[in-house]
Amino acid sequence: MERYLPDAPQRFVISHYTEADFKTGGLRDYSAYRDLGVAGATNGLAEAHVIRMIAPYRPELSVRHHHNVQFQLVYCLKGWFETDFEGIGPRRLMAGSCWVQPPGIHHTVVGGSDDCELLEILVPAEHETINDP
Hints:
Elements: E1 22-23, E2 31-35, H1 38-41, E3 47-53, E4 65-67, E5 71-78, E6 80-85, E7 89-94, E8 98-101, E9 107-112, E10 117-123, E11 129-131
Antiparallel strand pairs: 1-2, 2-3, 3-10, 4-11, 5-8, 5-10, 6-7, 6-9
InterPro entries: RmlC-like_jellyroll (IPR014710), RmlC_Cupin_sf (IPR011051)
Organism: Caballeronia arationis
Protein name: Cupin
């Protein structure tokens, strides 16, 4: 079966590291996000950002949720991060580990190191995150 990407114009982009690029106010209060410019370069086809944990993990931060995406990849750059996935159970990423989450899988964060940094890639860039009741 052949699959085609949407015919959206794309442009070249480079994102160089600067500490000032990490912004709060994203999906989770305990994280800062560094946008890598992928959404703008792909006209919304994909999004990529680095997530840095900026507050120690506490169980009350965990909210079971899912994302309305077509693709989601998480790669651990530094430290470790653990998530409990519906039907799979808890899984831990350590520096150099990667997982691909099936679209719509319900999950919750169950832990992470204070120095954790993750690379996350999502398709499409604009998507809804829904907290479970």
